[in-house]
Amino acid sequence: MRWKYHAAWLLASIGLADSCTSAYRPVTYADSTGSGITVNENHVFKLSSDGTTPSVIILDYGKDVEGHPTFNVTRRSGNTSVFEMSYSETRTMLDSHMSDGPLSLAAAMDTYRVNRYDIANQSSYTNRLVQGGLRYQKLNLSSAGELELSGVGIKPSLSHTSLATAPGSFNCSDPVLNNIWNTGARTIQLNELPAQSVPNFWVITDQGAFVDSLAPQPFAADYATMLTSYDLEFSVKPISNGFGFTVLSDTLGEGIYIFVNVANSSISAHAGSSELGTAPLAFAPLPPSVELSKWHTVRSMVNSTQVSIQIDGSSVLRFSQTSVFFGSFGLGASWGHSALFTNVSLASSGKQMYSSSLTNKSALQDFLLGTNPLPVSVDGSRRDRIAYAGDLDIAASSAFASTGGLEFINGSITLLGSFQMPPGFFVPNVKIQQAPRASGPQANITGLIGYSFSLVGAMAHYYEQTGDTEFLDRWTPSAIRMLDWAHSQTLSNGLFNISNPTMGGDWNYYDPSLSGVVSKFNLIYAYSLKQWLPLMADAGRNTTLYAQRLQHLQDAINEHLWSNDLQAYYLSDTYKDSLSQEANALAILSDTTSSHGASTILSTLARELYVPSGALPFSNASAAHGWARKISPYASGYHLKAAFHANDSNTARHLLHTVWGPMSDPNRANYTGCMWETLDIDGTPGLGDSTSLCHAWSSGPTADLSRYVLGIQPVSPGFGEWKVQPQTLGLDWAKGEYPVPQGKIKAHWRFDGSDLLHMDVTAPEGTNGTVHLPSSLRKALSKYKASGHDFEQDGSFVMKGGRFTFEQVE
């Protein structure tokens, strides 16, 4: 029975995956004969096991790839029923039991990073579900037989066009910076998911939903995550080994997991999303009547801490727990388990809340298990493959500079923006398997309040890049609602205040949550106001009130949050002995620092935060209050932008070479060709095995190198008017292209062997621009030759579309 179900669903996606023109192929492999062996174009991998010692081959793709694993069986003999393929971003985790999985937070990729195949004949195999970011793949035959495989690879589910042909480009005299730009661009590319690229998570049949080795995903009705007492019932036919389900689940699938192992006649309860890695909260044997390949009726009665389970009318498990107290339910199957589910019903307080036979694909939407209707930019290729508002603020600018991925940024803004709540703030993250909402959730509280400001910032970046007035008209009311809510939360002293600690979390979920008056939240509010003032004017809104609010807010920040002892803005009114990297960077970016000076703040950050592997996001004093000593490329991204904003080349060079340089070095351990989510203080992956090593929020330098080192920036939305104003960072030369709505702006500057400056700028017809000479020339300017400009103004050159050249002469 397992083969009948498993193989059918495994091969069902061949048509979808074949729509991609080619597969990623491994670059090298290692086996018992050696390592680093080059993979030839038509390579055949041979595995032979005696049933005691597995035959193992390790494939290395050289950098992260993603998609549908595929291979052809060209020959088999003996017992080939136990063949596994494992996937990992790091070589170390490839040897773990579950590799670098499971990944249960969303249904946008396969839950497990180990796939098992019962190879019965020579055939072609392509997995139905996507494996997210991976560099390494293990082939493992452990049954007594022989296999020969050809065409082993990964069929991409998204664009795999070479970055050499991407709309944006950057090259300079420093190979480290070139690696950084390309690594950030690759990160963006692997997190841009085209519409309808995510396969359906479950397979819907006329008997119900077939689920094979997939973590439960929660029923997604708005009310479901707040349920404390309910009665869940469903019918299930376990096909292989058993099945599972969750109760009291949050939106990311964490709750109480009920593991029903029919094969060994046991049932257990676990805190989390699977039975792995946790001791059971409760355990009991199953009655002999619970068998594989038979239909059973399961009922779970939940009353917050009290959970009881019946199968076919008999009580099989009853327990108390204090791990979670409210939440939804989900249906699934642990690794190697599979089952059919049907006739699910949910009742609460005697009222029927939900029912479905699960025989129609419309049921997929009830659990957010279908495909993604919009093109979207997600947070990570392996984890979490969810749209996050905070990540989007960084990812948007880097996408515009490299892949030109307007549709992905717009898709994520459209989706996230539809989750605006009545007060004005937004939900911080949204699963991508849903259409934009017609109206926002009817709730009055959110988490990660900084992400609501970040979403408003991403909207500003999009309009700045495109000049799309329809977009502006659509989102101006939403941005104003958010900013008006923030104003309503200001105290009599003018500072923005978080009264509910639930809203005070941030990207650093492992650190204490902040509430009250927090410098980061005040300064990101100021930054949002600064970004939106010109946009409001473009939208025909009166900006006088908002300009006054910005001035009053900045005055209050400088009066109350500045620490003369720290020579920076302190962390919060509760932690005045510590400072935040991101908050102080936002102070510079929002031009709040006029009375103290950007140079003072950047000097303080260098003194308080620098470590050999980069810069800490919080000063050392915060460790005594429970803050982790990690390095955040996300927070450092704002630090880098602030350095460029202040024209501080030393800070920019230090951050680029210490934070992002090692991640971008192909010779360093754990290289994936992508930027990492978080680093430990020693520069290794910062969240252990779960660290995402392809995370879009860490791609900030890709935008900054194009905008500040090439110097290409908009003056008016949509680049109708632009400027080229390079910061040289001590480089000999830099050149590249920046995509704009009218085409591309190309910039090339260099210092020749005599330290004389040469510049060459080309812009689309119909645009106007100003070319500024770099702020620090190697030789004083006395004579020059220039062409292609209309006139010179204050040492700069004003031009229309076309080509401008400049040559400094002695």
TrEMBL record:
GO MF annotation: an example: catalytic activity
GO BP terms, alphabetized: carbohydrate metabolic process
InterPro entries registered for this protein in UniProt: 6-hairpin_glycosidase_sf, 6hp_glycosidase-like_sf, Bac_rhamnosid6H, Bac_rhamnosid_C
Limits of the Alpha-L-rhamnosidase C-terminal domain: 711-778
Domain of life: Eukaryota
Keywords from the named record: Signal
Domain Alpha-L-rhamnosidase six-hairpin glycosidase: start-end pairs: 374-593
Signal peptide: 1-19
PANTHER family from the UniProt entry: ALPHA-L-RHAMNOSIDASE C-TERMINAL DOMAIN-CONTAINING PROTEIN, C, PUTATIVE (AFU_ORTHOLOGUE AFUA_3G02880)-RELATED
Protein name as catalogued: Alpha-L-rhamnosidase C
Species, as recorded: Aspergillus chevalieri
